[in-house]
Design brief:
The complex is a heterotrimer of chains A (267), B (250) and C (209). By secondary structure, chain B is mostly helical. Helix content of chain B is 74%, strand content 0%. Chain C has a single domain, classed as Arp2/3 complex 21 kDa subunit ARPC3 (Orthogonal Bundle), CATH 1.10.1760.20. Helix content of chain C is 69%, strand content 3%. Classes of the chains: A alpha/beta (267), B mainly alpha (250), C mainly alpha (209).
Chain lengths: 267, 250, 209
């Protein structure tokens, strides 16, 4: 059983835009998958199918081993947590704590359990001090953390994130990466949609490249060495690979790159 | 523009401590409503003035600065002044004592309602006020719409400021002509479209976290005897005024 | 275009409150959970949009947007307007608590009317339709203000500078501006997202599918 299995999925928006044009993919459990694609490639539309926000009009979508419909959707959304691209769309209560409590309360939990979960989630995201603040005044990084906390409070086993690194400063991106690492180690499947090739290169186990609503390729990060492929998807290779392109080395991150340079150039 | 002051002024004095701050929000709202309605029913200018006095006393004893109150009054004063002028001059027909009396009565009532509202809203955080709404047994969907309206008001307010600044940055000179109105009309339309798009995303985000139309909220604060006493006191005071107003010998 | 507390007579306010309650029930009927964010956010957006200050020579004008609200929200318009009035009363501290019913009618009824008029003229080009909706909104609202004032006290209609005359004097010049404002707004909506004009009808058609 896979975490996500999509077969020949098509989707056209009411205004006629065809966002998905026969997408098929498989995502195993506990994978760290990046849906990589330029803006408009269909990533967000695809993500909306993972928790039933968009029902499959044509094609099959199996999440956590089954197809979902009707009243079951509630349970699906308990198990698949989605973090939207714009945290302002997701923080709709008047205080952060109230917003994080939204999910657990909808699950019908009793108030003391709700408060426990809220506390736990805020703690995990290191924003306990923001509990009683109105979301409006927070910085983007704080808002993103509050949004993630709200999703984590539902204790999902699968996390789906839409462009989580967008507009974040480098420090915040690093914090996010650490957080994702922790969440993954806790036994979750994580699917992340982005056009940030460098991030994908450093974080992903599995990369699925999307272009104009179709899957161009699916594989591990060695895919990112294929410049022709990336070019077709309107993407650029990761910076490290660009720099080391004419060498036999393929460092995964800056530390490895430094090591190579130290060994070869500086000895 | 007064819009700048929404959030800042609403929560500015919310963290102070007074009998009003400590009053349970639902009872406070209910009692405040009763006082406002009662005050508006008064027919004697003198008693209406007394009601205003009580309202101001309540506001001041809640540690709200008088200057804050006066600033708020300034917003309705122009309208009241024009009305007073019109009425006291009999609409231009000649000085009218009756008109002046009416103007005075109306002003007292308007300011009383205003003062009570300001005190009601200013003595707890906005979030507590909104929670109180959800805890009163009102229909879920409209209340949820109100909560969302309240939350996103600030987003749109910011957007408005950005757009007005963008006008200035592009040396847009508003003139009383068709083109100016066209620019404002289209800007309004695009803001509304933005709101519409955002509302779709908000809905998706709500459903993604299990929203099913039912409003679930934290349990309300327990009501104690002090809360009830405050309620009884305010209802009694306005009832007393009304009884005197209607001529019942006390 | 709304009236402060204490200005109107008690029977007027009470009757208006009852009629307004009925209008709100009509406006909220059939509301689904998916309508909630739309109504809430548009209510806030309309409210904020009316705060735009349009300098017109020596003075400045605020958009009224009654007509546009009716066009975009259809039967939900009175509810959105009511929410806007509530927010204004709470957050701006301009009063208007006892007159929530009155003001909901002053703005909500013309909004409904403007929406119907707009929908009924589908065959015509969008700019004049929008203009008409804007005009209907302002004139309807002004007439209702005048009606409520005259029902409350004859002193409001006394003399050449009566309060009623002053209201007419200050509101009627806005009619033309508001007409064009609404017309241009509707035209942009029509060009970019036509399904937005007449949302409720669209939703009903979608659900019928």
């Amino acid at each position: 059983m896979n975490a996500l299995e999509i077969t020949d999925l098509h989707y056209t928006y009411p205004d006629g835009t065809k966002a998905l044009d026969g997408v098929s993919l498989t995502i195993p459990h506990y994978a760290r998958t990046v849906l990589l694609g330029a803006n408009g490639s269909g990533k967000s539309t695809l993500l909306l199918h993972t928790n039933g926000l968009l029902p499959p009009k044509r094609g099959r979508v199996q999440v956590l081993g089954q197809e979902w419909a009707g009243n079951d959707m509630r349970r699906l959304r308990e198990r698949v947590g989605m973090v939207f691209q714009d945290p302002d769309d997701q923080l709709f209560a008047t205080t952060v704590a109230d917003d994080v409590a939204f999910g657990p309360r909808n699950l019908g939990l009793d108030e003391s359990t709700v408060q426990e979960r809220v506390h736990q989630a805020l703690n995990e995201l290191e924003i306990l001090d923001l509990a009683h603040r109105p979301p409006h005044n927070l910085s983007l990084g704080q808002k993103k953390r509050a949004a993630i906390a709200g999703v984590l409070a539902m204790q999902p086993e699968m996390l789906v994130l839409d462009e989580p690194t967008a507009s974040l400063d480098p420090l915040a991106v690093r914090h996010l990466t650490t957080l994702l690492h922790t969440l993954h180690r806790q036994g979750r499947t994580i699917i992340l949609a982005t056009h940030n090739v460098d991030f994908a290169y450093q974080w992903a186990d599995q990369v699925i490249i999307l272009h104009r609503g179709q899957v161009l390729a699916s594989g591990d990060i060695t895919l990112l060495q294929d410049e022709a492929l990336l070019d077709k998807a309107s993407l650029e290779p990761p910076l490290l690979l660009q720099v080391f392109r004419d060498t036999p080395h393929r460092p995964r991150n800056t530390a490895e790159a430094n090591q190579i340079i130290r060994n070869t150039l500086l000895s | 523009m007064s819009t700048l002051h929404i959030q800042q002024e609403v929560d500015t004095y919310a963290g102070l401590d007074s009998w009003m701050h400590r009053w349970e929000p639902r009872l406070k709202i209910g009692a405040g409503l009763v006082f406002v309605v009662g005050g508006v029913l008064l027919q004697s200018p003198l008693l209406a003035a007394v009601a205003l006095g009580i309202a101001v006393a309540a506001a001041v004893s809640s540690r709200l600065p008088l200057s804050f109150l006066i600033t708020r009054w300034l917003w309705v004063l122009p309208f009241l002044a024009i009305m007073a002028l019109s009425l006291s001059m009999g609409g231009g027909l000649g000085a009218s004592g009756e008109g002046l009396t009416l103007a005075f009565l109306v002003s007292m009532k308007a300011l009383t309602a205003l003062t009570i509202m300001i005190t009601l809203v200013g003595t707890q955080p906005l979030s507590a006020l909104m929670n109180a709404f959800t805890q009163m047994r009102l229909p879920h969907l409209p209340v949820m719409a109100l909560l969302l309206a309240c939350r996103y008001l600030f987003c749109f307010r910011d957007e408005l400021q950005v757009r007005q600044r963008a006008f200035a940055a592009r040396a847009f000179q508003p003139k009383p002509n068709r083109r100016t109105v066209s620019v404002y009309g289209e800007t309004t339309a695009s803001m509304l479209l933005g709101a519409l798009d955002r509302s779709e995303q908000v809905h998706r985000a709500m459903v993604a976290r299990g929203f099913d139309g039912r409003l679930r909220t934290s349990p309300p604060r327990a009501i104690n005897y002090t809360d009830l006493a405050k309620g009884v006191f305010s209802v009694a005071s306005v009832t007393l005024l009304l009884l005197v107003d209607r001529g019942f010998p006390i | 275009m709304h009236i402060a507390d204490g200005v109107l007579g008690t029977p007027v306010v009470a009757a208006a409150a009852v009629v307004a309650a009925g209008t709100l029930v009509y406006a909220a009927r059939g509301m689904k959970s998916e309508d909630v964010p739309r109504v809430g956010l548009l209510a806030a957006a309309f409210f904020v949009s009316s705060l735009f200050r349009i300098p017109m020579g020596i003075t400045s004008v605020h958009p009224v947007l009654i007509g546009l609200t009716g066009v975009m929200l259809g039967r939900r318009a009175p509810l959105a307007i009511f929410l806007g009035l509530l927010l204004q009363a709470m957050l701006f501290g301009h009063g208007g608590l006892t007159t929530l019913g009155v003001n909901t009618l002053i703005m909500g009824l013309p909004a409904l009317f403007a929406g119907w008029a707009f929908a009924a003229t589908r065959r015509y080009p969008v700019l004049p339709r929008g203009f008409m909706a804007g005009v209907v909104g302002v004139i309807g609202g002004t007439l209702l203000v005048v009606a409520f004032l005259s029902l409350s006290s004859e002193m409001y209609s006394q003399g050449p500078f009566s309060l009623i005359n002053l209201v007419l004097l200050t509101h009627l010049p806005i009619v033309i501006i508001e007409g064009f404002l609404t017309g241009f707004a509707a035209r942009l909506l029509y060009r970019t997202r036509p399904e937005v004009l007449g949302i409720e009808e669209q939703r009903r058609e979608n659900r019928a599918e």
